[in-house]
Design brief:
Elements: H1 6-12, H2 18-25, E1 34-37, H3 44-52, E2 57-62, H4 65-74, E3 82-86, E4 101-107, H5 112-116, H6 142-148, H7 151-162, H8 167-180, H9 186-194, H10 210-220, H11 223-237, E5 238-248, H12 251-264, E6 271-273, H13 283-288, E7 296-302, H14 304-316
Parallel strand pairs: 1-2, 1-4, 2-3, 4-5
Antiparallel strand pairs: 5-7, 6-7
Helix pairs in contact: 2-3, 7-8, 7-10, 11-12
This protein binds S-adenosylmethionine.
S-adenosylmethionine (SAM) binds next to helix 3, strand 2 and helix 11.
Length: 319
């Protein structure tokens, strides 16, 4: 499958907070170095970094083979300045072999392409098999979770990862359903949740199955575990002056990023928070791209011990 028009590139995924992220990462000292786009997706952020400086190189990582194929096609014109790696970003270190990075971007979650294609099974809006694997080499699907876990385990997943208040009721319904036949399709799950989760007619906004689908996706792809590991791997490979930019889309991810960044900005870790509060897309972007609405961008710089000392002294002197 090849993607050869500008429209196809845009429709694969519209990058969120593209210029802000690229600007934060390609500051004066680091423009021409090696960057990692840990969530390559449609290749938009990687392309932004490659265009920002003629000597910048980008290693693009994605666990989805379709993203790798699409972005490799889109970025082929950059020749050896771009390399695509089909892997989970938690394994970042395996592909760097001692390279010190000028910057890393992580634009979390799923791409529009993944959401919009029914055969990937991520969306309650499109009927398809309940798959939800970003990496299709993985064994566990969302259907496996729903058909093999106990009622208690399903409730815990929906509560812990989806913060779903009706977790127990939904789990009970799933177990009742599967007494007759296995639950296999996204539409079956969406209907089942809608039969349990009451939404007053005046409360518009998110679909009743949003939290359930997100929880299953996070479980199938171990998203919180991968994020923890990926942040540590990225930080340990950043050069002095290198920056890490993370775009998250829900509170659990953002909380984890915030806590980790705060830890690195603590006395002994040599990090400098560049965004004390997360940055959000402007109105123009949220009007054009509904998926940008919940985005939060945080950026930290690894400044090394001397710079850290300067910052501490500045703080002490009340500067
Ligand atoms: C929101 S999209 C990225 C879009 C991209 N920044 C762009 O501008 O087109 C997220 C991508 O990250 C990938 N992804 C999510 N978690 C990952 C992980 N742990 N390791 C590797 N890729 C991951 C998904 O497969 C998806 O393609």
């Amino acid at each position: 499958m090849f993607f050869d028009t500008a429209q196809t590139m845009k429709s694969y995924h519209e990058s969120v907070m593209l210029s802000e992220t690229v600007d934060w990462l390609t500051h004066e000292r680091q423009r021409g170095g090696v960057f990692v786009d840990a969530t390559l997706g449609g290749g938009g952020h990687a392309e932004g970094l490659l265009l920002a400086h003629s000597e910048a190189r980008v290693i693009g990582i994605d666990q989805d083979d379709e993203a790798i194929r699409h972005a490799s096609e889109r970025l082929a014109r950059f020749g050896e300045r771009f390399r695509a790696v089909h892997a989970n970003f938690r394994e970042l270190a395996d592909y760097l072999k001692g390279v010190e990075l000028a910057g890393v971007v992580m634009d979390l979650g799923v791409s529009s392409h993944q959401l919009d294609h029914p055969d990937r099974g991520f969306s309650f809006m499109r009927d398809g098999l309940l798959d939800m694997r970003m990496d299709r080499r993985g064994e566990l699907t969302a259907a496996d979770v729903l058909n093999c876990c106990s009622e208690k385990e399903i409730a815990r997943i929906l509560w812990d990862l989806g913060e779903e208040r009706a977790s127990r009721r939904i789990a009970r319904r799933v177990v009742e359903f599967r007494k007759n036949r296995p639950i296999r399709r996204t539409a079956e799950l969406a209907d089942l949740v809608m039969g349990v989760v009451y939404r007053p007619p005046h409360r518009r906004g998110s679909h009743p199955a949003t939290n359930t689908f997100r929880a299953l996706r996070m479980m199938v792809n171990d998203e919180m575990g991968a994020l923890k590991d990926g942040l540590l791997a990225a930080w340990s490979h950043l050069a002095r002056g290198g920056r890490l930019a993370v775009i998250s889309f829900h509170s659990m991810e953002d909380r984890l990023v915030k806590q980790q960044f705060r830890h690195w900005a603590g006395e002994d870790e040599g990090g400098r928070l560049l965004t004390r509060k997360p940055l959000e897309p402007d109105e123009e972007e949220t009007l054009c791209n509904a998926r940008a609405r919940s985005a939060k961008l945080r950026v930290i710089e690894k400044c090394g011990s001397e710079k850290k000392q300067e910052i501490l002294e500045e703080k002490e002197n009340g500067a």
